Amino acid sequence: MNDEMRFVARLPAAGQRTLQLPALRAARVRQDVRGTLPAPVPERLPGPAPESAETTEPLPGREPVREPGVVEAKRAVSADVPGVRAGSRPAELARCILLSRDVELAQVLASIAVGAGVQLLPCRDVEQAAAYRDEVILVGQDAVAEVGSRLAASTLILVGAEEHQDVLWRAAATCPGARVAVLPAAAAWLGEYLGELGLHSGRAHLTLVAGAGGGAGTSTFAALLAATSTLEGSRTLLLDADPHSAGLWPVLKAREPDGLGWEDLENSRGQLSPGQLAEILPLSQGTAVLSWVRNPGCFVPSEALLAEVLAASRRIYEHIVIDAGHVTGVPASMAALADTRLLLLAARSVNAGAGTGRRLGERAGDWRLILTGRLAAGIDTRLLAQRAGIELGGYFAPRRAIARGAADGSLMNVLVRRSLRRNVAALGQGNGRHQESESETGQAA
Questions:
Q1: 204: which of 84, 138, 177, 314 fits an S-S bond (Cβ 3.0–4.6 Å)?
Q2: Which among 430, 435, 428 has a CA at the least distance from the CA of 230?
Q3: What sign does the CA torsion over 53, 206, 289, 299 have?
């Protein structure tokens, strides 16, 4: 095989790298129409009860997106829920470094990087580029002779025009592991390479909530955990990934939300950008929600689409809470991305969940068990966790207010109670804390 061919990756031409979503245009039209009408009264939690409620101050420096033609009242921030539009945080872009002084080459590479959703940071000399030696570095044909030992351990891609390919190949022979991209022939490959880099960027904390059986209340707990995160100041996404879900909106809002859902993503094409995702998703009390809006279960998202949504979400949200349904149906790729894994189990009897850890196998150590429902007299939650074979994360006691809120389509409003917020936040950490006071509450409920 020709030595030069070892460096060439021949991929199909890159397709359009923006989401093609007809429903998005319709949603924007509806938004423009609403912008010309008097501003609606912002959603608020019910008035706080003196003995158990607290207010949440709006986050400093974070205001809703200002739309032209909307009166000042729309920018009012609720005293109880931060008035933060989920898309107001700029997307966290992956980046790569360009070591080159060739302006024409820089313009070509900038165009490829924009299509891949990657930020291109130019450096004019090796000293500058060496500060980013742990990142991907594109080296122009005019700078390949300067690489030397300072960038030898970096991930290097030597790029240049076809007339300079001999220079690139000779430099590659002295840089083990370096790749060569001869433009324009390698533009498609370079776009795909940088696109993968962009898809795996992001620092959002991902919490996976799954159930060990029916009636564990995974959807309810996931919604409350996401809302609690929002109230604590994090830009949060509640993601419904349960293939058997009836949709989250019936318990979150009494009316159909303004925004799109899974059914609208069924025929989407191309790469989903973080900005588009934040733009199309509806909010519930400041928390972005991706679920089914009109026809639950009509379309089950594939693992590929879930991965695409998660990749975009991790770059613009700070906390992602996933309602994953039954634990046996959780894709391994999704579980691997999670920072915290919570397994909910309805504590109906002393044998509830026995052997669950054994069925999970090696993955059992990654999960924390949250027991839910009414505890029968004499049941020890630690004993239940021991029989399940999963470390105890705590007990989520039943409350009548939660049931009423879910039935009325106002579930998140119950978080006006300070004690409930504290309990949900502690359980959401999955750190094995166990509060005896909550166990007593559950037995008395």
A1: 314
A2: 428
A3: negative
Binning pLDDT at 50, 70 and 90, where does residue 438 land? Answer: very low
Q: CA dist 219 to 100, 250, 262, 264, 332, Å?
A: 51, 11, 16, 21, 20
Which range has the worst mean pLDDT, 66-80, 344-358, 373-387? 66-80
- The pLDDT assigned to 278 comes to 82
Q: Is the dihedral of CA 350, 356, 248, 235 positive or negative?
A: positive
Sheet containing 136-140: which strands, arranged edge to edge? 118-123, 94-99, 136-140, 155-161, 179-183
Q: What is the mean pLDDT of the chain?
A: 76
Q: Return the pLDDT at 319.
A: 95
The pairing of strands 287-290 and 283-284 is: antiparallel
The model's pTM: 0.63
> How many residues appear in the chain?
445
Beta bridge partners of 395: 371
How many Å apart are CA 134 and CA 199, to the nearest integer? 18
- The pLDDT value recorded for residue 324 is 94
Give the amino acid at 231.
L
Q: Are 232 and 425 in contact (CB under 8 A)?
A: yes
Q: What is the 3-state secondary structure (H, E, C) of the chain?
A: CCHHHHHCCCCCCCCCCCCCCHHHHHHHHHHHHHHCCCCCCCCCCCCCCCCCECCCCCCCCCCCCCCCCCCHHHHCCCCCCCCCCHHHCCCCCEEEEEECCCHHHHHHHHHHHHHHCEEEEEECCHHHHHCCCCCEEEEECCCHHHCCHHHCCCEEEEEEEHHHHHHHHHHHHCCCCCEEEEECCCHHHHHHHHHHHHHCCCCCEEEEEEECCCCCCHHHHHHHHHHHHHHCCCCEEEEECCCCCCCCHHHHCCCCCCCCCHHHHCCCCCCCCHHHHHHHCCEECCEEEECCCCCCCCCCCCHHHHHHHHHHHCCCCCEEEEEEEEHHHCCHHHHHHCCEEEEEEECCCCCCCCCHHHHHHHHHHHEEEEEECCCCCCCCHHHHHHHHCCCEEEEECCCHHHHHHHHHCCHHHHHHEHHHHHHHHHHHCCCCCCCHHHHHHHHHC
- C-beta separation of 94 from 286 below 8 A: no
**pLDDT band, very low/low/confident/very high, at 150 (cuts 50, 70, 90):** confident
- Cβ neighbours, 10 Å, residue 213: 14
| pLDDT score of 371 more than 60 | yes
Who wins on pLDDT, 152 or 204? 204
